[in-house]
Specification:
six-stranded parallel β-sheet; 33% helix; Rossmann fold; binds zinc ion; alpha/beta; single chain; GIY-YIG endonuclease; globular; binds adenosine-5'-diphosphate
Amino acid sequence: MYCQVVLRSATRAFDREYTYAVPGILQEKLAVGSRVLVPFGSGNRLVEGVVTAMQRDNRSEFYIKPIAELLAERPEVLPEQLQLAAQMRNRYICTYGDALKCMLPPTVTAVGAKTIRMAELVDPDEAAQRLADGEIDRIGHIRVIELLLESGSAPLQEIMHACQVSRAVLNTLVKKQLIQIFTQESRRSFPEELEYVSQESFLPSPDQADAIRAISEALTSDRQSVTQVKEHLLFGITGSGKTEVYLQCAQLAVDLGRGVIILVPEIALTPQMIRRIRSRFGTDIAVLHSRLTPAERYEQWQRILRQEVQVVVGARSAIFAPLSHIGLIVIDEEQESTYKSETHPRYHARDIARMRARNHQAVLLLGSATPSIESYYRTEQGRSRLLALPGRIGSAGLPKAEIIDMRQELLAGNRGIFSRKLSQSLRDAFRKGHQAILLINRRGYAGFILCRTCGHVVKCRSCSVSMTSHVNRDHAGLPRSQHLLVCHYCGKIARAPSTCPACGSDKIGRFGAGTQQVEEYFNLNFAPHKAIRMDQDTTSGRRSHQRLLDSFANGEADVLIGTQMIAKGHDFPNVTVSGVLSADLMLGVSDFRSSERAFALITQTAGRSGRGEAGGTVIIQAYNVDDYAVRLAAAQDYPGFYRQEITYRRAMKYPPFGSLAIITLSGVQEKPVREKCETLASALRVRRQSEPGLDSVEILTPARAPLYRIKDRYRWRLVIKGSDSTVLAAFLMPVMDRFDFGKIAYALDLDPYQML
Ligand code: ADP
Ligand code: ZN
Ligand code: ZN
């Protein structure tokens, strides 16, 4: 007997299937998906691999080495997952090992003690960034950080075992201020393990019934008819009954003996949500989220593999669950950017879901109140079927949204962060004992230039995204006339204007107030009313996140001030006022998706208030009041927004009409990084010219990355455009595989969501 094996840690150059002989004692046990140790290379070093195929004969004339060891009694990767790994390899230009890493959980030892020493990242965003920059180069360090990025926190014992590192390595990471160690009671009961009351399905409304019927037909349709559209987009505002549709469709799939994966954004994986799913499926579900320790994650994963559960609920990485016979994959809030992984391989869960749905002939159900432009476009193309839930369940109507023109406030002498209308509404709400939420955008450091008189935003002429000013990074201390603006797409640099190019006003400049400023302003003007602030600073470590939300829900504060994380998934019946403080700020993010994000965020925030009896007020403050995203979000007009946005995307060849790739190179000295980036660009240009059919590919000039110096490392990057991601990946692959990057670290992001 022989078998084919792929290695878990090979470079692309060595990443292929290798033939090994199966020793007699392993012939019964070894199967496709088995994890094994094999001798590799001339030194016969033992490396880990996964069996991808079994075969009787072997045609090679060379000596075939035998498998050294079987690492787990039973196969741990499904045949379909191996197929998926091969698909990911081509789609993301990664290795089998990179893909398999997404599918195998960390191995673990049991945890018994009463209290355990745990570790977590000091700042997950920064750690991810430093990882992406190749700044962390010791393999042990990388493993620990990747593990913690995925699991949030984990016991030291498990980290050491899973990552094969010593305590000394962890101490080094503590010294480097990358991780911190704390003591925790060993958690045996999770909020989501608490009691649940089993609940019958609701009688579906006529719209829900239509949607369920369509999914049911797709579930039972002839498995041979590959042409049938199995993708659906369930489009309905918050409270329109989407989750009820997911649950009833999941039940249908389970009744047919098929598996179900339900993905929700991490932030929506609240105990309430899990309880709601349990109320239908009892304990026969596996929940995968970032608060699980590796041991718990491993246990859940084993239950799935042993086919003890048919329903898996989880955040992004749950899309890789080893579930067989998948019949239905649901992605709730499909437009969320948390479905995009920011560590290598930078997959998008929606793309993986499409691959797996195709592999299993399964139905894909995307749900959203504000669908991504890409997904909505597919329904117009006939590649996905639109199912709409037009109204809210029950009588609760939509709150009224009002746009406040902050230019008028300025004219009237109000220089504060809150408009007069907002201040008044807050006071009215507090008097009645109601609460409010105030939303501000997160990105503070990369500002843009806005005219406070006319609302004009300075944009790049060739890319039509706003130019970014990096005042407090590279140009601190320089007079304003020397501030430079950078386009994050083409790298074009321009001087910041001192008067508005549109109206000539001199009230033009960098714009933005952070969450902290808003909190201070609130305390100054509204004391003794209390505020809770929620942003990256106050919620690091993830454990505090739920605590802050709970104390707000318990009425311990009158207002919740925060970034986008407050707009989602939570139900606060006592909130009657929501305010979006700087709708413009969201538009200023130099990214072709900024309008889409702003639209979704404003719509969601609006949907937050008035869920209870009292009705609601939504106040949207902006300078640029004519912007279509702001205007149409206030009117809750998604179709109107879609029509505007799709025109812009088509004109600029942005997705869904084209695809982008970003290759970022970094190193401690700038010159070699820049030169390598230029050589890479020439290599790509040669390839484009030497092969026909690549006319759609466009290679932009190498440019400094928007954040071009991070922690003493210089970053340059190359943006490449193509007609779609398949074309782009096929174009890049041969060059990326052969190019000699030398000592320069590089990262490839196909279809990026973060332009910084
Ligand atoms: P969404 O997921 O779109 O926000 P949900 O499914 O959570 O909407 O529904 C909103 C509320 O309406 C929930 O409290 C849910 O229990 C209730 N609900 C949903 N469908 C029905 C129905 N057919 N009949 C009665 N109540 C329903
Ligand atoms: Zn102006
Ligand atoms: Zn540009």
